[in-house]
Amino acid sequence: MNTTSRKSLTFKIASGFGVIILLAMALGMAGIVTLQRTTAELNNIAQNELPAAVALGTVAKNLENIRGSLRTLAIPGLDPETRARQYDNISKAREAYQAAEARFEQSAFTPEIEAAWKAYKQAHSDQKTANNQFLDACRQIDQLGIADPVEVIGQLRRFQGDHYRLDLNILALMDEGVAFEGGDDHTACNFGKWLPTFKTESAELNRLLEEMKGPHQQFHQAVAEIRQAIQAGDRDRARNIYDTRMKAARTEVFNRFDGLLAVAEKSRELFDQNQVLAMGELTDKVRATLDAINKVVEANNAYLDDYTGSVTRLARTTMFVLIGCILAVLVLGIVLTYSLTRSILRPVRRVVEVLGNVAHRPPPPRLNWPGPAKACLPPPLSRPPFPRRPPVPSPKSPPRTTKWPGSASPPPN
After folding, report:
1. In 3D, which of 314, 205, 340, 217 has the Cα closest to residue 263?
2. What pLDDT digit, counting tens, does each position of 154-164 carry?
């Protein structure tokens, strides 16, 4: 193999491995670039898009919680603990959805999401105005201390009628002698039984009820003394008790009943206003707000679907590119291997072929000299211009003699 062949073979080997190395580097770079892009997109989904979607869900959930609490506050007859719990739920829900709104506004908006979000903010602003109006009326009702004004008004009117009939019975007893049962125990009447069970945090109601206890007791005590006087036949004393003591107590009792009824009527008026607001304007605005936030959720979900679809397509493209690069490297490696193998083995095959041809060639024919050997020898060379020194024989080996074919002794000089 000459120098040119060796250089050509070296160049082919180096070129083949160089191409494979370049393809491997290209494959690695393509994998790194696509992996970085896919990682960046996945990080964006994990750090931005999913938290934004969760924030939207938090907003919608807390708006529903507020609507439930408003509906609960519209129920008459709730105890103060339950009403206080609803106020607390509304406060916590507001804090939660405000934080969620702030988090969602940090994300990137598409035009569709931005339009839906502006519509939601406007609808929510209108709803908050109605919510605050409703809650203000609820707190005024709480300050009045009557959870169910309709029921309290009915009870107070019944108590007022009971004492009014008792006053008429006393007059009939004094004027006509018509007897009746009861009325002489201030704790046995309907108001006396109800009073210990009624609890309120209203300072005005507590003041009116406290002021009513004394006159109410005096009213019933006068009834008992008048009845005793009538039974004793002393009508003048009975009339004197009625004029001097029972009338004054009756006036105080009925005045306090009027005061209690005035507070209850005011509470009922506020309650009726709240019922109209809750069943009408507030319900419509809450529904509009929920519809608006649902549209934001739909727009955001559509954006997420497109975004995740693009990430999926990127991952699929990355996989196809990598598979293509791998196949290209594999095919090129096979081609280069085949080419280099042929380049290396071609000279070897030639040598083997030549050696094989030499090995299978028949030996040359044996020479038979027809005459003396001398006649077959070439002419002798001319003698050199100077005498040649004869060789000195080695003492260890005998002188070498040459046998020529066809003769027993060397030819003569």
Report:
1. 205
2. 999 999 999 99
